[in-house]
Amino acid sequence: MKAPMIAAALLAGAAQADTFITVQSTTSTQNSGLYDAILPIFEAETGIDVRVVAVGTGQALRNARSCDGDVLLVHAKEAEEAFVTDGFGLTRQDVMYNDFVLIGPVDDPANVADQNSIAEALVAVAASDAPFASRGDDSGTHRREVSLWPDGPPASGTTYLETGQGMGATLNIAAALQAYSLTDRATWLTFANTDGMTILHEGDPALFNQYGVIVISPQACPSVKLEDAQRFADWITGDTGQSAIASYRLGETQLFTPNATR
Amino acid sequence: MVNKDAMEPFTTAFANAWHLIWTADADLMGVLALSFQVTGLAVLVSCLIGFPLGAILGVGRFAGRSASLVAINALMGLPPVVVGLGLYLLLSRAGPLGVFGLLYTPTAMVIAQTVLVTPIVAALTAQVTEEMHREYRDLFATMGMGQVQQAATLLWDGRFALTTAALAGTGRAFAEVGAVMIVGGNIDHVTRVMTTTIALETSRGELALALGLGLILLVLSLAINAGVMGLRNMGMRLAHG
């Protein structure tokens, strides 16, 4: 069959960019506009084009295990460390953090704003009739949310709704149903469809949200562009990358706080 | 009674769509160009495969023909997500075709859409040529034509009817999101097309912008259909006097 080959040849021109790396990423860093702000700086400095595939952390880790990327940028520390221990990643480095927040309808029917901890707030949601929208997709945010319920999450399909979708889709559902939900702060602050919803509980140390970067191991994946991938990891954990992250703001609010250790 | 506030997303959507087109937004133009490129190539390849395949099924008399027709009709209903997932497993670096490095390229998106569109083109072609074959059967018999020649004749004589098959395929490819999202990865400036942009903006809660992009997609789809139908009618007048 000649036709697909012709198609491939014609399209090669469209997809052309000689030096590029593929980053398997969580969605919050893309949806919040962080990449649009910092990647052009890296690209201008190095001439390396960064192609971001933004999926949930769980899917990003799976895609990386299939060698479909050069770098991982996700937020599920335990899973990331397991990824490295299993030989798929070279090293894992902290990049930055923000925090998770519990959002819900402004009138707060489960009264979570008055609770002393996120655990108590979630128990209050479970005790009320108010719905809770969970990602249910094995993402970094979903893993964290599941771990925050003192007795495990409520049975699925009652008032606990597993959307099985990304953060944005889940927030759209939460807004439509006036349901509670757990989201990272950056995604929430840049989310437009907040219809009658607001942050109701925040600040618990258990809501700390650490992002890490991993260069995928060329031993596990010979296709990895090691040099360029390492350059990206060094850059984002280095002075220029860290200050670029720190200076990304939405209005007055800084969305991510850099905390790479050098 | 229409609540004025409830209509707000729709009016904003129109305003957004108009603004993006009027200012010839550079990102939008890039995304549109890639949409046309991917869909155009996928439909072209699908027609190159689907027209002959459909015509053979339409006029051929061979064992397994009915089963093939049933299969090709069933394939018209292939869920795009399943096609995307299957191709992901094939094209992934860990998959059997991984060495070609096609995942997250426009080529992968063309392949995905070709898989989705070819059954539509083939099935509709089979239907058109089968009906024509009833009228042409005696003529073919007196001329002593073989099956391949008959298929070729019917494809040519039925070319105006077959534009509908190509258009149906174009509609499917143009509007499809599930498969291209998985194999393309929705990478900015590389594999981002209209439908994946709409999905992204929806996930960012920018509903009016997403709807505005949807309106642009709809208008373009209308324009393509009107254009092709116009050409078809012009061609028919020329051909039949």
UniProtKB/TrEMBL annotation, chain A:
Top-level taxon: Bacteria
SUPFAM superfamilies given in the database record: Periplasmic binding protein-like II
Comp. bias intervals (Basic and acidic residues): 135-146
Residue span of region Disordered: 134-155
Location of the PBP domain: 22-239
Signal sequence bounds: 1-17
Keyword list, A-Z: Signal
Protein name: Tungstate-binding protein TupA
Source species: Pontivivens insulae
TrEMBL record, chain B:
Record field: transmembrane: 28-57, 69-91, 103-124, 207-228
Chain ranges of the ABC transmembrane type-1 domain: 32-228
Main location: membrane
CDD domains recorded: TM_PBP2
Subcellular location: Cell membrane
CC annotations in GO: plasma membrane
Membrane topology value: Multi-pass membrane protein
GO biological process: transmembrane transport
Signal peptide boundaries: none
Keywords of this entry: Membrane, Transmembrane, Transmembrane helix
InterPro entries: ABC_perm_TupB-like, MetI-like, MetI-like_sf
Gene3D superfamilies, alphabetized: MetI-like (1.10.3720.10)
NCBIfam families (UniProt xref): ABC_perm1 (NF038017)
Annotated PANTHER family: PERMEASE COMPONENT OF TUNGSTATE ABC TRANSPORTER
Record-given protein name: Tungstate uptake system permease protein TupB
Organism phylogeny: Bacteria, Pseudomonadati, Pseudomonadota, Alphaproteobacteria, Rhodobacterales
Gene behind the chain: tupB
